[in-house]
Amino acid sequence: MSAVPKEVFTVGAAAAKFIAKPRQLLIDGKWTNAESGKTFPVINPATGEQIARVAEGDKADVDKAVKAARKAFETGPWPAMSRSDRGKLLHRIGDLMLKYADELAELESLDNGKPVAVARAADVALSADMFHYMSGWATKRHGVTLPVDCLYTPGVQYHSYTRPEPVGVVGQIIPWNFPLLMAAWKLAPALTMGCTVVLKVAEETPLSALRLGEIMQEAGLPAGVVNIITGFGETAGAALAAHPDVDKIAFTGSTEVGRLIVKAATNNLKKVSLELGGKSPNIILADADLETAIPGAASAIFFNHGQCCCAGSRLYVEQKIFDQVVEGVSEEAKKIKLGPGLDPSTQMGPLVSEIQFSRVCGFLESGFREGAKAIAGGKKREGKGFFVEPTVLVDAKPGMKVVDEEIFGPVVTAMPFRQFDDELVRQANNTIYGLAAGIWTRDVSKAHALAARLKAGTVWINCFNIFDASLPFGGYKQSGWGREMGEAVLENYTESKAVTVRI
Ligand code: NAI
Ligand code: MG
User: Fold this and answer.
1) I need a labelling partner for 480 at 20 to 30 A (CA). Which of 172, 243, 429, 501 fits?
2) Whether 275 is catalytic
3) Beta strand segments in 168-225, E
């Protein structure tokens, strides 16, 4: 791994122009300052320096945004729009995201720290695709007719059917690991169902969603349908979760805050969906094709610097190939080039923030204190920016924080297992989380048998981190409630109405 380069990498003219002026809140179709007039800095994690300023929205602004979303939901062009036109509008948003893909990727890289090429190929491409995919559901979501023989009105005939209706005003709170993609995952299904939205973006990474706000306006989205609040979790986020006129809250982030969201939602019993943490097992059986399994296990943890809720952070390797796999994954880790996201040669950028950087370093220290050993990495980078080396830990056991808790950094614990048996299943499921799992084997029967027994919302076999707009994604156990993406996510934004007519 080379040292972090000294050169300053700059963004293109469009992104430079976007960050040059303080960014405001989007409320009722207008860009406005926070009621308090306050702003806060956006930090480049590769340098620790301020790159922009954004409005610090809080409760007063959330109130205004909810009012605008309510008005847009009940009256005006949005509820009057045909499903076909709604679909076309969503499709246009996807098209415009691709038109501005380079600018969006640069903003994402600058703000979050991820390599610009990854932001372009993954974050921006998948975000646009989410709008394209969801645009089709606008015209395809339909109710059913149901046979009804009401027992206490014998002989009377009824015609009964269901109507899938939008749940109403939706509050959405998103994290910083995939800022644009999380906005797209949340906004596109809510909009295709005809909901209106107040989106609270992560304070660490507000830029790309604000640019998306402009893009949605350019696509012709009516005022008030999407309102965007930049601000902090404890103020703006908490106000949104507790708001009595919000019908549904969708949250992605820590399990700890997920619990607060549930509590806040109890006042008006708004609907809640949650996509929370993970500690996903990635299991390599002795018969696996190690030429794909080893780089696959490395990318399962190191993609997005380990800042993935589904990261393959507990690597279970069958005893007889343990040393070979640990050595292989460690070699992969050592090859990864750290640097600023805007450097085209960078393979792994900094962690998103100083707080996240100290959190991950704290996990490493606790791991070493408790007896874990680093075969690769294990250190932070001295100097500017929030860089942590891709790390492979061995001699780690359940009961240690590095094995039990979500680190959300480029740190994998490799642990041997004796063979494919019940004990392996028990170990893999020995976590409060249940988001994802990986299995590497050439044995089709073992692969499917194991897939059925893992308590996880997603199982990848001989691959990892494979995402598509059509695939439902979400967690068992404390990884959350409900699913994102696919047809499944539409449930989150639907009220189903049963209508019965006497014939
Ligand atoms: P967080 O859960 O605090 O932040 C996520 C979002 O929730 C942000 O928009 C934040 O402003 C908002 N928020 C925070 N407190 C809130 C509150 N009381 N009410 C309403 N909204 C609130 O996550 P944080 O602090 O950024 O990261 C901590 C850990 O959470 C990470 O180390 C990681 O383990 C986990 N995490 C999981 C993510 C996932 O994709 N499942 C994403 C981000 C973090
Ligand atoms: Mg937090």
Assistant:
1) 243
2) yes
3) 169-173, 196-201
Q: State the amino acid at position 200 in one-letter form.
A: K
Average pLDDT over residues 121-150: 97
* Whole-model pTM over 0.70: yes
Q: Could you tell me the CA-to-CA distances from 192 to 54, 164, 167, 249, 478 in Å, in that order?
A: 29, 12, 12, 17, 28
User: Cα(345) to centroid of ligand 2, in Å?
Assistant: 31
pLDDT digits (tens, 9 = 90+) for 140-177: 999 999 999 999 999 999 999 999 999 999 999 999 99
Ligand 1 atom, smallest distance to 231 CA: 11
Give the mean model confidence (pLDDT) for residues 375-399: 96
pLDDT tens-digit map of 323-375: 999 999 999 999 999 999 999 999 999 999 999 999 999 999 999 999 999 99
Q: Hey, which bits of 56-140 come out as E strands?
A: none
Give the pLDDT of residue 5. Answer: 46
Kindly identify the ligand whose nearest atom is closest to the C-alpha of 185. Answer: 1
**Ligand 1 centroid, distance to 276 Cα (angstroms):** 9
Q: Strands, E, within 241-379: which ranges?
A: 248-252, 271-275, 281-284, 314-318, 373-376
User: Which backbone phi and psi does 404 adopt, to 5 degrees?
Assistant: -90, -30
Q: What is the pLDDT of residue 10?
A: 84
| 56, 203, 308, 309: the active-site residue | 309
Residue 309 is among the residues annotated as catalytic for this protein: yes
What whole-number distance in Å separates Cα of residue 250 and Cα of residue 74?
Answer: 20
Selection from 1, 20, 2 nearest residue 10 by Cα: 20
pLDDT of residue 9: 80
Q: Which residue has the tokens 């109405």?
A: 497
Smallest CA separation from ligand 1 atom 22, residue:
233
Lookup result for tokens 């399994």: 293
Which residue segments constitute the domains of the chain, with CATH numbers given? 14-276+480-499 (3.40.605.10), 281-469 (3.40.309.10)
- Residue with the smallest CA separation from ligand 1 atom 8 is 202
> Confidence class of residue 7 from pLDDT cuts 50, 70 and 90?
low
What atom in ligand 1 is closest to the CA of residue 480?
A: 41
Exposure string over 72-90, b if 16+ CB within 10 A, otherwise e: bbeeeebeebebeebbbbb
Ligand 1 shell residues, CB under 6 Å: 173-175, 177, 200, 202-203, 232-234, 237-238, 241, 252-254, 257, 260-261, 275-277, 309, 359, 406, 408
